[in-house]
Amino acid sequence: MSMLSGWRRGSHDADGFEYPIYTEGEGPGVIVMHESPGLTPEAVRFGREVVDAGFTVVLPHFFGPAHRAPHALEAVRVIPLLCIRREFTLVATGRTTPVAEWLRSLARRVHAEAGGVGVGAVGMCLTGGFALAMMVDPVVVAPVVAQPAVPVPLTARRAADIGLDPADLVAVRDRVRGGCPVLGVRYREDWATGTRFETLTGLLGHGFLRVDLEGRGHATLTSERNQGAVDAVIDFLTQRLHPSD
């Protein structure tokens, strides 16, 4: 039986892009964006945990397999394909992902359908910085950046870059100053995250809430999940999206 059994399959079309989406749960909306190589069982499991915590969860499916365990080396095959797709940026610095407007449109739709004070956004690895791009829209009030790995940290400049163009960078800083914090989770010795947490701390100050886990792991919420990281994310979503609680 598919791990997505019971999830409502649909799609969202905006800004020249269309992707499948899977929805489950009740309560304020949270958009959970999968990492490479795709919408794996571990990503779906994390989405289910967020559902069980009292949220409507939407899982966009951007690339790779959906709900099944990936084949060996599938992550290696996915990366070259993403390099030639116009909606993703893996190496350019100072540039917001082209899929940002699609994500902001999805957030507005989810908020309209689920209600509440706003929407949460959880990005992981290749999509880690997408939550920052989404919070340019004020409907996103609970952004979570999990092990952001783009741009690929091949140089010191890329390792420090958080994947936003200058205007979006200012908008994110202003939103944080206005009272919208950002939660970040990573393994402290994860090379893929580069020095982005230091960049975010310098830019956002105390508005960037860091969870630095010990070790060299990477996928904090999925294949190398850390329960402390999962709890921190769900607590943050609860505080931001269920303020009366």
TrEMBL record:
Q: Which Pfam families match?
A: DLH
Q: Say yes or no: keyword Transmembrane helix present.
A: yes
Identify a single GO molecular function assigned to this protein: hydrolase activity
Q: What are the alphabetically sorted keywords of the record?
A: Hydrolase, Membrane, Transmembrane, Transmembrane helix
UniProt key word Hydrolase: yes
Could you name the domain of life of the organism this protein comes from?
Bacteria
Q: Where are the transmembrane segments?
A: 114-136
Residues forming the Dienelactone hydrolase domain are 26-148
Check the record and name the InterPro entries matching this protein.
AB_hydrolase_fold, Dienelactn_hydro
Spell out the protein name for this chain: Dienelactone hydrolase family protein
Q: Which organism is it from?
A: Terrabacter terrigena
